[in-house]
Amino acid sequence: MSFLDELSARFGVPYRFAKLPEKCRAYLVDGAAVLNENLNSERAHWAYCHEVAHLQLGHPANPPRDDAEERDQETEANRLASDLLLPEDQFAPAAQGSLTELKRTFPFASHEVLARKRMRYRPGLLTIFDNGKMTARLVPDDWNPPAGGLFPLEREALKLSLESKGEETVKREGLQVEATYVDEGRGVIRVILFLEGEMEQGFCIT
Q1: Contacts of 200 (CB under 8 A, 6+ apart)
Q2: Fold held by 97-204
Q3: Does the domain spanning 3-85 belong to CATH 1.10.10.10?
Q4: What percent of the chain has pLDDT above 70?
Q5: For the CA atoms of the chain, what is the radius of gyration?
Q6: Are 179 and 157 in contact (CB under 8 A)?
């Protein structure tokens, strides 16, 4: 039995794969999750849990009336999907570990899902680079995002991680940056940066 089969048995929601448009990961139809056949296993697990979350939250019976309500429903579904895929009682004891350690413990979840979930327990600044381009810059809900580009410590950790093709940690003056190299396949090289340490009013101090 695959992990996706285990999820389906646990939540009672069937699934099937189908050829879908590239940007469409999954959707619900007649109480079943239809998943894009091009998804790798990690993304299929997340997409399935996301659709189950929509069901459990009652979203199909209450379609969004506007873009703002749609964003709210997606945010709700993402948070619940994270809990469905990574239950709190299992994740919380491991949350202080590095991203590489978390991946070993939860191999069925992507590095990004693990990094986002960990921010609930370890507030910090999460940044994602894909092929050298910044694609995400995330902070906890009650923080203000920092202005400008990377901090010097982040740039240093990014460079080291790309050179070693592994996980690197750089510490200085009460700050720490963890940089994790991930070969996403399909020609995509990802580096996930996580900065934590001394904070003031939601901003990182350099």
Answers
A1: none
A2: Beta-Lactamase (3.30.450)
A3: no
A4: 96
A5: 18
A6: yes
